[in-house]
Amino acid sequence: MKVRDLDLSDNPVNAEHAELGLPPVETALTHPESHPVLRVAMWSVVGLLMALTIALATRLFNQPDGQSALQTVWMALDSREFWAAVLVGLLAQTVDGALGMAYGITSTSFLLATGSSPAVASAAVHIAECFTTGASGISHLKLGNVSKQLFLRLLLPGMVGAATGAWLLSSIDGDAIKPWIAGYLMLMGLFVISKIFRRIRVNHGEPRHVAKLGLFGGFVDAAGGGGWGPVVTTTLVGTGHDPRLTIGSVNLAEFFLTFITAGVFAVLMHDDNPWVTVAGLVVGGLFAAPFAALLTKRLHTKALLGLVGTTIVLTSAFNLYKALA
Hints:
76% of the residues lie in helices and 0% in strands. It has helices at residues 12-20, 27-30, 36-61, 69-77, 80-99, 103-113, 118-142, 148-171, 174-194, 210-224, 228-238, 243-268, 275-286, 289-298, 301-324. The longest helix is centred in the N-terminal third of the chain and has 26 residues, at 36-61. The N and C termini lie far apart (72 Å).
């Protein structure tokens, strides 16, 4: 005998079922965020974000050299690194707000151009992204945009790939790997441009090779400073899978792999300090919403894709030239 947890509320789906003489649907279908696995995921996001906030505050108020929090903030405000990161955060968050993707590859490309090492750039981007991806994941859960099956199939492989990519990037000399990162970001820029010419194929089947896609997406996202959204979301939606559930599930999984990436960098990076860059990215991102709205309103999506992709390609080409010169 099957035990059913029916949703007896007056919702549109139940109204359709009533007209056809069918019983009400289960609560798990109308309120997918109430599923035990997704509830655990949501509260995990909340708990981890609180822990990260406390850790950052503790670091700010307990400097190893005895500086006060006010002195630390003043030194950050007086540094070129901070204001460069503010500008990068503003640009990258504007792009992400207008397109719904490409924050990582945009910010990493510009941070490399301002002189950051690949490890510092990727670490700063992922630490800053913890907050945005966490908020995004919770929003998608509340709106019922997350598929439990797809989320779980992406989660562990994505985290393993992210941890591996962060470990690799932290273990290799920055000057040696910088040309490879610049080349990867250039390819990602071309990939963004290619979306202008792609057509979506309709596919009503279950997504295939999700674990492999998650593993690869997590690895290149951590090692290259970005790419989870363009690689995973674009591949799944591009093969015709439900955009709403795909975007929601990928966004929720992104928080956990971003958190893992940030944690690996924090443990392995001893000499380089990404915190000033993180602060700049966060501050710049706070003011990006109006610019993103303006771009979305003024520019056609294809024009915006072309502009962003071209900018990433040119910036990465400049970084590649500097690395090889």
